[in-house]
Amino acid sequence: VVGGQPGISPWTVSLRNRQGQHFCGGSLVKEQWVLTARQCFSSCHVPLTGYEVWLGTMFQNPQPGDPGLQRVPVAKLVCGPSGSQLVLLKLERPATLNQHVALICLPPERYVVPPETKCEIAGWGETKDTGNNAVLNVASLTVISNQECNIKHRGRVRESEMCTKALLVPVGACEGDYGGPLACFTHDCWVLEGIIIPNRVCARPRWPAIFMRVSVFVDWIHKVIRL
Amino acid sequence: QRSPLNDFQTLRGTELQHLLHAEGPRPWQEDVADAEECARRCGPLLDCRAFHYNVSSHGCQLLPWTQDSPHTQLQRSGRCDLFQKKDYVQTCIMDNGVKYRGTVAITTGGLPCQHWSHRFPNDHRYMPTLRNGLEENFCRNPDGDPRGPWCYTTDPAVRFQSCGIKSCREAACIWCNGEDYRGAVDHTESGRECQRWDLQRPHPHPFEPGKFLDKDLDDNYCRNPDGSERPWCYTTDPQVEREFCDLPRCGSETQPRHEATTLNCFRGKGEGYRGTANTTAAGVPCQRWDAQSPHQHRFAPEKYACKDLRENFCRNPDGSEAPWCFTSRPGMRVAFCYQIRRCTDDMRPEDCYHGAGERYRGSISRTRKGILCQRWSAETPHKPQFTPSSAPHAHLEENFCRNPDGDSHGPWCYTTDPGTPFDYCALQPCDDDQPPSILEPPDQVLFEKCGKRVPPLDQHRSKLR
Q1: Which residues are within 8 A (CB) of A5 and not within 5 positions of it... i.e. 6 or more apart?
Q2: Mind listing the pLDDT tens digit for each residue in B56-74?
Q3: Which of A56, A123, B112, B364 has the fewest CB atoms within 10 Å, counting from its CB?
Q4: pLDDT at B461
Q5: Coil, strand or helix: which one is A161?
């Protein structure tokens, strides 16, 4: 995250490859399910042996004795509807919820986040030297309407996507944050409204950032978890 | 520090059964520390050619036969791993093959070999013993002939002839950087013996075979699991951690491996990407591959001829998760080029539907990945929640794509792939279809349990140093 600060985000998880390296973020939407970005996986049928989800820590490279750290292997990957750029990961076992690990709410189906809603992104990705690479960074962003966003993006933003306000200084998600959450504070709760996907350039000043709109795919998420 | 297991070839989860009951099971030796201990016991015994190691009881069963012995059969096993002496099961030879104990029994001229115990039609002085391995009429090399294993022939006119068994080096060649090499060379170019991949000594390493199933890190054979310029292995010499192996190249350098190349998007891990994107997702320009500053690296274009490491284009020469490059920024060594779009791996849609497809009555019965749909009336491989009787309104005929639950993403079906309960179909919304906009004013929402964070961010921030 560029332009963020060290912070807490108990639903944000780190995806680890077979070498144990962090390569993407994700959000814990059920004890055994993580929502992340399709871009992070080479295919819908990739062998998952050795892939893990790390939860409950702020550190990019936590010590083995880190009290809060939970390392859970990924058991299954389910690709989202075409065009969703989402995948759901089923963990081999449920994560343990505690003060370091929490679920994030899913929005109602097709819910549209009102403009000016305060949100935050979180991740262990590239900071462009604006933050601390060793810990989770969190940055605040504000939602704008698709209509306003499409002015700058010349109508390319789809309804299944959402935007946050352009800032004068570089603030936003970057490589290594993809799949992570855009969490918005709604009615006294944090709700997973968006998923970080690659934009043409990271944290580009004076340019609205685009996220996948989770509420469009909530029915698919419930269906996969149910089936 | 070679392991006794270096003389053995492993078959995980496999048992070797002898079909003749007269042979009877061989005794188990329990509480053996590990498979190496079994190998230490079997290795020196001339009548021990293989052994079972029971991974749960830590038992060891020495066997006088291999999978090439008559009346034997390999069987899947949840308990045992089978270790067979390489000399008996390998189809290639190391050096001049004096240790070869395979079952080839025909010469390069196509002549059947004469049994060693026979002195007709060609009389000779090599009599079989347990030690010299002159078994039946198999090719052997009792006199260290540099041309390798040979035999006396059954043709009186041809006393003896070589059998033409290839050296393990010649038996398999490498394409590109040898990522697909699955040959049996187990020594490095300097002649050092390779360490087994499933051992962590003398050199600890991250390449656990169980974690890298697609790299086939078998026994102590040369492999290339990390995109090095050619196959290599850790060595049994504590002073030398790893070395390349000397292996012949197949044909011309430049042809790519089997995946198609793409220009505007990337497929899978992007190993076939040949586009001209030359910045990272963070917008930082990439460093040229033929430059060593600001970052020194081993990916010289001439050593990776078939990876097309031209200029400073994003590429994936080492099997990473996606195309990447060294960056022009000193503080950032490498970065992925995730801004390159992924090629869709969906099938081309074969039909279209209106709205959410609840009224679709076509006969498409494949998912967007091309998997055949399960019949709605079937119970396997997936027990359906929607059946023709439970959802009569949905016309759940045969295995046609339908939308019985009003899924907003279109018609779907249960699939015949056990690993995929359901998936959307190779269909798309009809061109003349305008789905209703969702950008309506927000309505009230209530959340009970989730989305809480203790303590709230702003309080916590005040405590941060």
Answers
A1: A131, A137, A138, A139, B461
A2: 888 999 999 999 998 899 9
A3: B112
A4: 46
A5: strand
Q: Outline where DSSP puts E strands in B276-332.
A: 324-326
Q: Which residues contact B462 (CB under 8 A, 6 or more apart)?
A: none
Q: Which residue among B280, B424, B451 sits closest to A190, beta carbon to beta carbon?
A: B451
User: B282 vs A201: CB contact, 8 Å cut-off?
Assistant: yes
Phi, then psi, of A53 in degrees rounded to 5: -115, 130
Residue A143 Cα, gap to closest chain B Cα (Å):
13
What distance in Å separates residue A166's CA from the closest CA in chain B? 17
What's the pLDDT tens digit per position in B164-180?
999 999 999 998 999 99
ipTM of the complex: 0.89
Q: What is the largest CA-CA distance in chain B?
A: 100
Computed on alpha carbons and rounded to an integer, the radius of gyration of chain B in Å comes to 31
Tell me the average pLDDT of chain B: 89
Q: Are B50 and B63 in contact (CB under 8 A)?
A: yes
- Of B241, B230, B226, nearest to A19 by C-alpha is B226
Model pLDDT, residue B465:
39
Give the integer Cα–Cα distance in Å for B219 and B9: 6
Q: Is B340 within 8 Å of B271 (Cβ atoms)? A: no
Residue type, A182: L
Of B213, B280, B460, nearest to A8 by CB-CB distance is B460
CA atoms within 13 A on the CB side of B315: 21
CA distance B398 to B418: 18
Cα A217 from Cα B3, distance rounded (Å): 54
Choose among B129, B134, B49, B37: nearest CA to B87.
B49
**Which DSSP state fits A21?**
-
Tell which residue, B148, B150, B27, B10, has the closest CA to residue B85. B10
Residues of chain A in contact with residue B450, where contact means CB-CB under 8 angstroms, are 102-106, 189
Cα gap B379→B384, rounded to integer Å: 6
Nearest CA in chain B to A189: B451
Give the mutation candidate from A1, A15, A17, A18 for the B interface (greatest B CB count, under 10 A).
A18
Count other Cβ atoms within 10 Å, centred on residue B140.
27
**Cα(B39)–Cα(B60) distance, integer angstroms:** 9
Measure A99 CA to nearest chain B CA, in Å: 7
Per-residue burial over B310-340, b = 16 or more CB atoms within 10 Å of its CB, e = otherwise: eebbbbbbbbbbbbbbbbbbeebeebbbbbb
Q: Which two tokens stand for residue B296?
A: 């020194």
Cis peptide before A208 (omega within 30 of 0): no
Instruction: Give the pLDDT mean for B288-309.
Output: 95
What is the pLDDT at residue B440? 61
Please state, in angstroms and rounded to a whole number, the distance separating the CA atoms of residues A20 and B370. 33
Burial A187-216 (b: 16+ CB within 10 A, else e): eebbbbbbbbbbbebbbbeebbbbbbbbbb
Q: Which of B268, B447, B453 sits opposite A102 (nearest CB)?
A: B453
A12-16 and A22-30: which strand pairing? antiparallel
